[in-house]
Amino acid sequence: MFPVVSRHYAVFKKVNNVDKMTDHKEIMKDIVSLCKRRGFIFAASDIYGGINGFWDYGPLGVELKNNLRDRWWRDMVLCPPIGPDGAPISIVGVDSSIIQNPKCWEASGHVGGFNDPMVDCRESKKRYREDHLIIIVPKDEENDKGKNGQSLLDNGRTSFAFMVDQWDKTEEDAAAKKIEKYIKKAGDETLKNLRIGKLILKPFEGRVKPEHYKFVVGPDVNTKGTLTEPVQFNMMFHTYVGAASGDDNKAYLRPETCAGIFLNFKNVLDSSRVKAPFGIAQIGKAFRNEVTPRNFIFRSREFEQMELEWFCAEEDVPQWFDFWVDERTRFWESVGIPKSELHFLNVPKEELAHYSSRTIDVEYRFPFTAPDFGELEGIAHRGNFDLTQHAEFSGQKLEYFDQAENKRFVPHVIEPSTGLTRGVLALICQAYTVDKNRPSGVYLNFHPSMAPLKAAILPLTAKEEHVPIAQKLYLDLRHEFAVELDIKQNIGKRYARQDEIGTPYCFTVDNDTISDQTVTVRDRNTMAQERIHMDKVKDFLREKIVGK
Ligand code: GAP
């Protein structure tokens, strides 16, 4: 085996005071399987073998997603934060069309520039995003010391491409095997003299020059030179509006929801009483023909976004930018993502989107990025790019008139933009807790306000005396809380199911209930049980769920 660069690659979870190290890939597999088994998330078109990059939300998944969506809407639009001056800020909502006039996407820069560089493999017929290909240029420890990968490639050194989001120990092992096999079989001139054990496998840093693809063995093949040079690929899905299907009728599915906000800027100003600074928010579907959808619902081709465009004067941008970073952090903490699992990336200048002069990515430690982080939300200063562009392309004035100062200006925009579906994935990953001391072996430790079900009502047995009382309790609670009445199976199995779907409380009706009208409350996290009077159940849930 070749010596490899060592990287940390495990996720660490503390469970019942037992430290458990588990391979992050295994954890992801378990999460995906639990999501399917318990009805959170299914592959779209499952019975037809699925369709890559599309997902359906099952009975529990849709509740979880709606809980996150409704909380965002409540915290942004219905009950927005208190501003730096002590008064609540002003935010209104819109729900715009997915298909807009195609000029919108010319103005926004998406028709010309929403591209990913793409590399095709002539042999495997697979397509890869160039910036997701990890290129390994094997170096000989002694002979190639100090030389970078590009100079080895300039010399025609055979290299290997792998498709991974994260270069880690498991990828290194797989790469080592592949290269070893290649050398033994093909005996490539530039490699065969190297003694096994002397190669250093290190991802090549930087971009591989297009002409060097001829030296590269692609991710899914064993011969070199099958990869094409990168070509630009526009990620917008298009369709034709009306009966004809020519260029004149071409329209696009929106790749981000914010455009519908900018397009309605004037309508909102003319029809409501907002005064700058103010925000317009929108939640809805967005579509991107991602070259490589990956990591479950993390990067999909159809997804949902929750976006706020905050319009303010240019000179106030620094103050509002910090305000939104703080508020959004508070939001994620309030739904159960601890700050310790978040990272704030000040996006380097060369990686900023064309419209942005400053962006902070709020990143979460997903199992497939651990110990590193993956983007959960972007908070961008978009300047006045969008309003200026849409004003130019539409010929309409998109300005704000400040009556107090008697002046017109084009507001600057700060945009906290998050993926609703990506947020759902973060909630599931955060909640997933391994616990060998319980029958399910695992439970979902959702924040009670996010849990799809707040409580389950369980008659201890299917006996006639227990069931009617449980039914009565269920009928009493369901107007206010998402609750479930579950009668079948032994009680241990029913607890196990509720643990796996993350229900914070189970109320069990037993023989004592008949005599003293008390039920047991079982706490999902501690498994501890206490008895409370049936009349107190509603208040108990109000305090535990609504109060938090
Ligand atoms: N309006 C700005 C904008 O759309 P973005 O960084 O491209 O910015 C914002 O997207 C958020 O949308 C991301 O932080 C992520 O949460 C989510 N998102 C983007 N592409 C996605 C995809 N293919 N699948 C799931 N979520 C995605």
How do the strands and helices of this protein lay out in sequence?
Elements: E1 10-15, E2 18-23, H1 24-37, E3 41-43, E4 55-57, H2 59-78, E5 91-93, H3 103-107, H4 110-113, E6 115-120, E7 127-129, E8 133-136, E9 139-140, H5 149-154, E10 159-163, H6 169-186, H7 189-192, E11 199-200, E12 216-217, E13 231-234, E14 238-240, E15 250-252, H8 258-263, H9 265-271, E16 278-287, E17 302-312, H10 317-334, E18 342-346, E19 358-364, E20 374-383, H11 385-394, E21 400-402, E22 407-409, E23 412-419, H12 420-431, E24 432-434, E25 442-444, E26 455-459, H13 466-477, E27 483-485, H14 491-501, E28 505-509, H15 511-516, E29 518-523, E30 529-533, H16 537-546
Parallel strand pairs: 5-16, 10-12, 26-27, 26-28
Antiparallel strand pairs: 1-2, 3-4, 6-7, 6-13, 8-10, 9-11, 14-15, 16-17, 17-23, 18-19, 19-20, 20-23, 21-22, 24-25, 28-29, 29-30
Helix pairs in contact: 2-12
Bound molecules: glycyl-adenosine-5'-phosphate (GAP).
